[in-house]
Each structure stands twice: as structure tokens, then as C-alpha cells.
Specification:
By secondary structure, this protein is of the alpha+beta class. The strands form eight sheets. A 16-stranded antiparallel sheet has the order 10-11-12-13-14-15-16-17-18-19-20-27-28-29-30-35, with no helix packed on it. Strands 24-25-33-34 form a four-stranded antiparallel sheet, with no helix packed on it. A three-stranded mixed sheet has the order 1-3-2. Helix 1 crosses helix 4. The longest helix is centred in the N-terminal third of the chain and has 24 residues. It starts with a helix and ends with a strand.
Length: 751
């Protein structure tokens, strides 16, 4: 065993040398003159356990950038510093493999000429037989009664490949669990014995839990003010109230970290430090540990302004003013104002040139959107476990091609529970006085409300009240902006009825579930996503066949840059069409007509109706670009989904209707998040649906091809016989490849 230990010591020293050399030589491998030898290619041959990308990051030798290799002018040119670098890199690769369970690994560097002053550097790796862990055991010195709870489901187990990084993860797991259950002085030793001839290893963790401890005195001196000559403005008594940890609690290191993060997240402090005084536990006669809290106040008033552009928002702007210590006691006051769709209507026509044509032609988006709101949030209630918030606002907002919501006044009272925990939840109650408008054809096709007077009932100002609950389980690593491993799941439930203060017409029950999984595969990050939702509304009549009404803001939509990317925003699923023109056939009597539109001859506006059931599935492989891998990412994806409407205008859920659209994407990382362009290929014809035009009196006339609903004109007013408008209108299908591509631009990963 002595020889094995000595070999590991030598390998560790080589690794340290290799790491230091790598850090130093990164700045030295640039080409200083034309006589330097350029590294045009860097290859690894024979590596199966580790990716090329992982091995490249551990060595100093670097190939010229993709732009330099391709265009010869742009990009960075890297050269071969010396043969010693290859020896150092080989030692680093050798140690990397040995510490991850390959004791017989052989690394051979090869330099291959590619022309004058240009070479390819190749590392031929023979991994050899892996060393496996024959046993993993835990030895306790003073084991607590529930010791088995701390050693179950460790990241290492017998049969796994011997990997020192995984051994460290196992030790950290045991340590963390004990420190979260009252053992702040726990020590875990990691021992292993290697049997190279048998390619086996035995692993042993030795645990010294130390004394069980409780929180003793919590020392909170006055915060250091932002202006060193001024006085602190935040009360230490209030900090103690919201800390979430009190004297007498069982010691829990995660609780202290959550308290530290929670105080920092209030943004009232630029520095928060919460530490334990281990010496106090040594000196204590009652197993208590002293906790020290150190605070530096931040600037407590802040004003921010921003402007931007989006293809479905045109120009937009936002102003925010925040008081982080409003009303005393770490209460936060936010005053927000924002406008969007700038350029679509009076008085902002001067900016019309910034708006896309499809936005200007959308009847529900061609109006200025605004939002004014004031929000008060308590830093915490009952410690940092529940954070209440009260928001009062007024707004006008439109959903592309779907609806326009005008809210005179709205109030949202919410409480966030379990922030920083395993399953944070949000409870909310939303009360609004407003109205929702949409295309007349939408109400007629979906809810059988075709007369102008009947539509007014659904479009008038009324009271809506919604009770909501949402829970999010996040295990994404390293963050939610661009995760590489783990998963994120979210479940949301919403209910509205007269019982909670809503009118009968605004009643509904809605549930949505969204989950994403991330893992490293195929040299990149493989992401899968599943989204499903259902909503139940209220019937507009007494009969069993009466259509079901779901408030437009609660209907479910799919299609767009964060959904099925082969479809434009909200355009997946049922749709209604408003043709630009139609033909009139006169029936006997000269006062009766048939109106119909020919989709091959006329254009149309599409009105997505959404639905009461939705299903979306995505699979995406994200790969680093060979050119600027830290900056650029490629993606290949396949999206699938469908929206169903079980109401009058649609059919039941039929999985045969699911549409699949593949595509490719490009992401460029920036300070505001990944700037993203996706191109989806849609091979399907657009869905068939009913077609309507609006008569001058406001009544809707069905003009679907082949319809038999007669139109009569009396005193200049056209009325149509009652009956279903057939879903026989289908827009022209573009035969060219380019007509089937859907382009989407946005910021942030799609999921």
C-alpha cells in the first residue's frame, strides 16, 4: 500500500505543476512573430470517459480560434510554446485520468506537420481498465441515534468507478447533513486503499459528529451605514425579527445560509455576514453556539430607467423607483411604470418605423400598452419563511392576435413561503375591475356569441377575482439562466368563482404543469421539457350543449419562441380567419344571398382561439461553438405539441393531432442573458377553421367556403340564419421551402 500512496503523491505534485504551468502559459502561447509555430488543430484520440471540451480546459496547449483557422485573418492565433508544454500537459492528463479511476492510462503527445510553421497537436490516450470501488463503508465515532439517515443515498456506492471528486462529494454530503441537524463541529475523514492488480478500491468514511448543539446568543451590532459619517437607519431589532433563526433553535447551517441570503436579497445591505463562533461551543457548558451577524447598509433609495425593442412589443420603456426601507422595518416599496407597443397608435405614430408589419396589422396590438403599479413587500413574516406582498396597479396589455385587456384597477395580495428551501410556494389573491376585448369572430366561433349586443355582455367592465397557488422545485445547476444539469418543475393552480368574489361569467379552474430536465450528453447539454395544462370554464346557457366560456386571459396557447417554434406566436391549434374579401351569390328572390371566401384568391387575418387543453414537448441539444465557445452556442431541437378546444368550436383531445417541428438555433451570451435566434421548420398546412366578416351593423357573417347559411338584407342590415359556421376555410399553403420556416428572436433560453 505504501507504493500506491507514494504514486498518488507524485501524481498530485505533477498535477499541481501542470495546473500552475497551464495558468502561466495561457498568457504566453500567443504568437509573437511569424517564425512561431502555429497550433492549427488540437485533437484527443481514444478518450471515452471524458469529453474533448473537458480535457482542453485542463491543458495549456491551445489551437487557434475557429475564425482564425477558417478565414486566416480574424480571431486569435495561438502557437506552440515549447516541447516542455506537451510534457506538462501529458502529466496533467495522466493525473486527471488516474484520479478518476484509470490507473493504467497512457498519454502520448504527437506533433503532426500541416505545412510551413503550422502543426496539429494530438494526444493519443489509452484509458485502460477502470478501477471500481469494491466497498464503501462508514465508521462512526460516537454515532447519533439516527445515524443511518445521514449516510443514505450518497453520491458514491460500491460498483462505481473510483473517482476522487465523487469521494469528496460523498464526504461533503455527510458533513452537510450533520451540520443541518445540530452538529456544527462534525469532521468526516475520507480513506481509501487501492488494489491495482485487481482494479479495485475500498473506501471508508470515518465520522466524528462532535457534540450536538443549539443556537445560543445571536449578536447583531448596529449596521455600518452606507455613509460612514452618518447613522445606521435599519433597526437591529427588526433584523432580529426577520432573521428566521432564533435562540434555542437546533443548529442548522442551511438555515443560517438562508437567513444570510434572505437579508442580502432585501437589497438593503451591500454586505451580510452570518458566522458561528465555534470557540463558544467549546467553552459552553450547555452545548450552545454563538452566532455573529455583520451588516453593511446599502443605498436605500434607487431609481432605474431602461429602454428596449422587441418584435412583438415595438419600442418599450420602463422606470422603477425603490425604497428598501420604506415605512421603517425593512419594508420595500416599488413604484413601477412601463409602456410598450410604442409606435402602433396615437400619440406615438412617430415611432411607427420601429414596429413590424405583423404587429401593426394586428387589431388587438395596435394600441399603446401601459402599466402603473405600486408594491409593498415585507422583508419577512415569521422570520424569512413567509414573505408577504401587496400590489396595486392599472394597466392595458395585449396578447398578440388574441386579446386586449384593459384593467382600471387591480390588487394582488401574495405570500411567498419557503424561499431558499426545497419547494418554495406562492399563495395569491388577485382582484381586478376591467374588461377583455377580442375579434368579434373569436366570440362567434368559440362561444357562439355572434350578435353585437350579446358580445357586449362579455366585453363589458366587470369584476374578476382569482385565488392562486404555485410551487417550484428547482434542482438546476449552476443557475436558472443557463443550466447544464438538474431539473426545474413548476405546478400552478388558479380558481375563480363567485365564492371568492368573481362574477359568474369570469369563473374558471385552471391547472398548468411545466418541467425541464438538463444533462450533459453528446458533447453538449441535452434539454427536455414537458408542459401540460387544462382549464374549465362556465357555461353560457342552461342546456347541456351550451358553449363553455373561459376568460380570454386564462385560455391556453402554444406556438412561439418559448413553445413550439415551428409555429408563430400563439398560432398553434384552433384558429378563426377574417378574409380580406368574399363573394356574394344571389339566391331566388333577390333579397337572399350566400356569402363565401376563396382562400386561394384572398388574404386573411388569423385569430388564434387558444384552447382549454395544451400539451408541449421539447428536446434540444445545446453545443458550444468551435468559434468563441465561451460566447456562442448552437442548438438543434425538435418541438411537438397541440392545443385543443373542447368547446363549441373544436373537438376533444386527440393525440393524433400533435404536430412536430424540427429546427436549429443560435445563442450569443451577453450581460442581459443569451441573445437567441431560432428557426423552426413547419411542414404542415395551417389548420382549417371558420371564416367571418363583420357587417356594417356589427353583426358577424360566416363566409366559410361551402357554408349554406343564408344572408338576408333588410333595411340595409345583413343578418344570417342561425347555425354552425363550418370550419372549411384553410389558408394557402406555401410550396417553397422558405415559406415553411418560422424565425424567432428573443433573449434568454427557451426553457
Amino acid at each position: 500500500m505504501t507504493n500506491s500512496r507514494a504514486a498518488w503523491l507524485v501524481a498530485a505534485l505533477l498535477s499541481t505543476f501542470a495546473t500552475t504551468a497551464s495558468a502561466q502559459r495561457r498568457a504566453e502561447i500567443g504568437c509573437d512573430s511569424d517564425d512561431d509555430i502555429e497550433v492549427r488543430e488540437l485533437r484527443f484520440v481514444g478518450n471515452r470517459a471524458h469529453t474533448d471540451y473537458a480535457l482542453e480546459r485542463g491543458i495549456a496547449t491551445t489551437a487557434s480560434t475557429w475564425w482564425r483557422r477558417t478565414f486566416r485573418v480574424f480571431g486569435q492565433r495561438y502557437c506552440l510554446d515549447s516541447i516542455a508544454v506537451l510534457i506538462t500537459d501529458s502529466a496533467g492528463l495522466d493525473f486527471h485520468y488516474k484520479r478518476t479511476g484509470f490507473p493504467d492510462v497512457k498519454v502520448k503527445p504527437v506533433i503532426r506537420s500541416l505545412g510551413p510553421r503550422r502543426v496539429a497537436v494530438e494526444y493519443y490516450i489509452t484509458e485502460g481498465r477502470p478501477m471500481l470501488m469494491d466497498s464503501v463503508s462508514v465508521v462512526w465515532h460516537g454515532a447519533p441515534p439516527d445515524s443511518l439517515d445521514y449516510t443514505e443515498d450518497l453520491p458514491v456506492e460500491a460498483g462505481d468507478r473510483f473517482d476522487t471528486s465523487q469521494l469528496e462529494a460523498g464526504r461533503d454530503t455527510i458533513t452537510r447533513r450533520l451540520r443541518n441537524h445540530g452538529y456544527p463541529l462534525v469532521t468526516v475523514l475520507r480513506n481509501f486503499d487501492l488494489y491495482p492488480k485487481d482494479y479495485k478500491a475500498t473506501v471508508e468514511y470515518v465520522v466524528y459528529p462532535g457534540p450536538k448543539a443549539w443556537i445560543g446568543e445571536i449578536k447583531i451590532p448596529a449596521p455600518i451605514p452606507a455613509n460612514l459619517t452618518g447613522q445606521p437607519r435599519i433597526s437591529t431589532n427588526r433584523v432580529r425579527e426577520v432573521l428566521g433563526v432564533k435562540e434555542g433553535d437546533l443548529y442548522n447551517e442551511s438555515a443560517l445560509e438562508r437567513a444570510e441570503r434572505g437579508l442580502f436579497d432585501t437589497e438593503a445591505f451591500r454586505f451580510v455576514g452570518i458566522t458561528r463562533d465555534s470557540a463558544s461551543l467549546m467553552e459552553s457548558q450547555d452545548s450552545t453556539v454563538t452566532v455573529n451577524v455583520q451588516l453593511h447598509e446599502s443605498t436605500l433609495l434607487a431609481t432605474r430607467a431602461s429602454m428596449g425593442w422587441a418584435n412583438l412589443d415595438c419600442l418599450r420603456a420602463q422606470v422603477n423607483h425603490t425604497n428598501y426601507n420604506a415605512l421603517g422595518g425593512l419594508r420595500r416599496l416599488d413604484l413601477n411604470g412601463r409602456i410598450s407597443k410604442v409606435g402602433t397608435s396615437y400619440p406615438t405614430e412617430w415611432a411607427q418605423g420601429f414596429c413590424t408589419s405583423e404587429l401593426l396589422n394586428d387589431e388587438v396590438s395596435d394600441t399603446l400598452n401601459y402599466y402603473l403599479g405600486g408594491q409593498v413587500s415585507q422583508a419577512a413574516l415569521f422570520g424569512l419563511r413567509i414573505v408577504p406582498t401587496l400590489l396595486v396597479y392599472t394597466e392595458r396589455r395585449s396578447e398578440f392576435k388574441a386579446y386586449l385587456r384593459d384593467t382600471k384597477v387591480g390588487v394582488i395580495a401574495s405570500a411567498q413561503q419557503g424561499l431558499g428551501g426545497r419547494l418554495p410556494m406562492t399563495w395569491s389573491y388577485q382582484l381586478e375591475y376591467g374588461k377583455t376585448s377580442a375579434q368579434p369572430a373569436f366570440f362567434c366561433a368559440v362561444f357562439n356569441v355572434c350578435e353585437a349586443e350579446a358580445r357586449e355582455r362579455l366585453e363589458q367592465y366587470n369584476r374578476s377575482a382569482v385565488v392562486g397557488w404555485a410551487a417550484t422545485r428547482s434542482r438546476a445547476f449552476p443557475n436558472l439562466v443557463s443550466p447544464v444539469a438538474g431539473n426545474v418543475m413548476r405546478l400552478e393552480l388558479r380558481h375563480a368563482s363567485p365564492l371568492v368574489g368573481a362574477t359568474k361569467d369570469a369563473s374558471f379552474n385552471r391547472a398548468t404543469f411545466d418541467a425541464s430536465w438538463y444533462r450533459q450528453a453528446l458533447g453538449g447539454i441535452f434539454v427536455t421539457r414537458f408542459r401540460a395544462g387544462a382549464v374549465l370554464g362556465t357555461r353560457l346557457g342552461l342546456g347541456a350543449g351550451a358553449p363553455t366560456f373561459v376568460p380570454l386571459t386564462e385560455r391556453l396557447y402554444a406556438g412561439g419562441p418559448n413553445s413550439v417554434r415551428g409555429f408563430r406566436q400563439n398560432e398553434m391549434g384552433p384558429a378563426i380567419y377574417v378574409p380580406d374579401d368574399f363573394s356574394v351569390d344571389t339566391l331566388p328572390g333577390d333579397s337572399t344571398f350566400l356569402w363565401s371566401a376563396n382562400p386561394l384568391l384572398v388574404g386573411e387575418r388569423t385569430v388564434p382561439s387558444g384552447g382549454d387543453n395544451v400539451l408541449v414537448m421539447n428536446a434540444e441539444l445545446r453545443m458550444r461553438s468551435p468559434a468563441y465557445p465561451e460566447l456562442v452556442q448552437y442548438a438543434v431541437f425538435v418541438d411537438a405539441g397541440q392545443v385543443w378546444n373542447r368547446g363549441r368550436a373544436g373537438t376533444g383531445v386527440n393525440f393524433a393531432d400533435i404536430r412536430v417541428t424540427p429546427g436549429i438555433g443560435l445563442r450569443v451570451f451577453s450581460p442581459v442573458g443569451p441573445i437567441r435566434m431560432d428557426v423552426g421548420y413547419n411542414p404542415y398546412r395551417r389548420t382549417t377553421g371558420p371564416a367571418y366578416v363583420t357587417e356594417t351593423s356589427g353583426n358577424l357573417i360566416c363566409v366559410s367556403p361551402g357554408n349554406t347559411l343564408q344572408v338576408r338584407v333588410v333595411n340595409g342590415v345583413a343578418t344570417q340564419d342561425e347555425g354552425d359556421c363550418p370550419a372549411t376555410y384553410q389558408p394557402k399553403f406555401g410550396q417553397k421551402f422558405w415559406n415553411r420556416l418560422t424565425f424567432a428572436f428573443s433573449i434568454g433560453q427557451p426553457f
